[in-house]
């Protein structure tokens, strides 16, 4: 008997809740996560963290307890990456507990994709995504040595800054492109739990004396005397801040790279949580449960339910947050210097992109295919997760994001040895212990 | 619908063949338009590994044509030629892991000798004597060829189209045409065009247009690796299994082993391919097949096991029923020329085919060397009673 257990990718709030729901219905899901522990980005390694917000810890505990209850029925595979899912219905997991099998259904709960806007100097050593700093802090408890600076926009920036403060490594400043505190009345319309959490983070930052420079752009980064110099601009006034490490974060986006109907054949595939729509951890749990219910419906071959709209409360909250952080984009890509790197995998600049578009417009339009093949945008190991938002924005009149994106597996680069080492349960008739 | 414009020549298909015809025709002073349903190098030309290979051709006519095209492309890569910087000479390494594969190497040796081709054997011996270090122990024999080259299909396509003084239109697909004494009326998705002559070079897109020319869409899966460590020597040329030759030239490869090609890119990445599957569904890739290819590739070059795979993709080649390309004027329609069915050999043959079709269009004289490729061969077969 071949292995056909349903697969859940990602053991964050959405994935865990989906696993609980499927287990409660009598199924034995396979739950895979590349991290060594459950919880996802938001609940990773909570016990090791300073007690920032009691509510967050409480919610994580409830989810963990619920999961512990069904744990014996879940095949939890940690430190294991989801690599691919093909039209033949085969899934490939690689790493510590890698395998090939044919899941009856798949739920992707892979979390959001962090956006980072290209700026001159953003590819220098010492500059990383703020999310990467947060993951390092949560999983290893460490941060890079020296002075830290956070820059960009969005609520997550403050959560990360507060976590750094709690870890005794307060950032030099938080540079916020938007101006969220300018609309206090609008902010007060946020739900109480969101406000409480925001107040806690802000309180931490105020107490630690971390300056929040709102309405300020980080326009350029350069190196000088072994330090990183962040050039900032606020209403035409320029300033420099010397630091050793910069964490960039320009918001979160849904993450469906490598997942499309044409790639996944006949198997029912659902997305849950922030990878489907960035609505935060409460919505993600809800969404995980609903995705699991959709799987149950699909497997019972009852008429499929249409995709359920997310709870409107969460949508309202995120819309409001987006408004609070919204601003006129003064760092719009066309204004950047031409040598700004857009695609760091293939080292392609804004100038390269403009040249390609210009050369073509004399005769005919540049196709998405040409931007990929000849100009190499989206062809590196990240498959365009980083650059295609910006390429699509610049070529909106000729190409679409969907055309630019290749949607090809593996989802992330995977070692040949790991592909070959994964045991194959798509055909093995002797493997009876797997339901 | 009003005719949008009038041309000496309309070419349907902006792949490497259509682009080469376009450039060669404009060199002869023809007024040319190229249309494509998607854009340049949107199908097989964009998905190819770029190997300009004579060794993989069927002995006889195909090997001769490939060699002639290779020699011509070499010329075009000289001085300020159109393929300068795009056509890169490099050695080819063809290996055997079994008796049938070794026999295929013997046949290759005979073909290169008997046909006096410009591709020559530089070395033939045990794996240890090869210029490539770290070969797997499965490999018993390696032939190093001199004279072949690398030319990425999309780069050549763009070079031809950039240099050709012609009008380009996409997305615009050829939907139908009507030959008449005055020329050809071309009906496209964006209106009607008029031309004296029409070239149909749209690969698998040709299938629906020419019902009397039987074709198969044959897809192949390809794997792209990361760049690998800087310390690792890049392969000087592709490492090709003799089974791949059998797959392309003989009646199947029997028990010769899985055909695998490990092709270095100038970036330090490697391309691992490729399968021949008769379903012809573009973009269909599967884990089981890719794993078999990788297993075979690691057996040939064990250090590949540490590389990371960043992308798997599929391309579709248009194949004819008898394995020969379909090139020439249509039997009852002398103003309509087709050039399709190359099944992956378009990269190698594009230079010659472009030159010869342009000559035929400009002078009305067609090359006797291409007579065997005529689309008319299928209609005459049908006439023979079963």
Automatic annotation (TrEMBL), chain A:
<feature type="domain" description="FAD/NAD(P)-binding">
    <location>
        <begin position="7"/>
        <end position="256"/>
    </location>
</feature>
<dbReference type="InterPro" id="IPR036188">
    <property type="entry name" value="FAD/NAD-bd_sf"/>
</dbReference>
<dbReference type="InterPro" id="IPR023753">
    <property type="entry name" value="FAD/NAD-binding_dom"/>
</dbReference>
<dbReference type="InterPro" id="IPR041854">
    <property type="entry name" value="BFD-like_2Fe2S-bd_dom_sf"/>
</dbReference>
<dbReference type="InterPro" id="IPR051691">
    <property type="entry name" value="Metab_Enz_Cyan_OpOx_G3PDH"/>
</dbReference>
<dbReference type="Pfam" id="PF07992">
    <property type="entry name" value="Pyr_redox_2"/>
</dbReference>
<protein>
    <submittedName>
        <fullName>FAD-dependent pyridine nucleotide-disulfide oxidoreductase</fullName>
    </submittedName>
</protein>
<keyword id="KW-0560">Oxidoreductase</keyword>
<dbReference type="GO" id="GO:0016491">
    <property type="term" value="F:oxidoreductase activity"/>
</dbReference>
From TrEMBL, chain B:
<protein>
    <submittedName>
        <fullName>FAD dependent oxidoreductase</fullName>
    </submittedName>
</protein>
<dbReference type="InterPro" id="IPR036188">
    <property type="entry name" value="FAD/NAD-bd_sf"/>
</dbReference>
<feature type="domain" description="FAD dependent oxidoreductase">
    <location>
        <begin position="8"/>
        <end position="359"/>
    </location>
</feature>
<dbReference type="Pfam" id="PF01266">
    <property type="entry name" value="DAO"/>
</dbReference>
<dbReference type="GO" id="GO:0005737">
    <property type="term" value="C:cytoplasm"/>
</dbReference>
<dbReference type="GO" id="GO:0016491">
    <property type="term" value="F:oxidoreductase activity"/>
</dbReference>
<dbReference type="InterPro" id="IPR006076">
    <property type="entry name" value="FAD-dep_OxRdtase"/>
</dbReference>
<keyword id="KW-0560">Oxidoreductase</keyword>
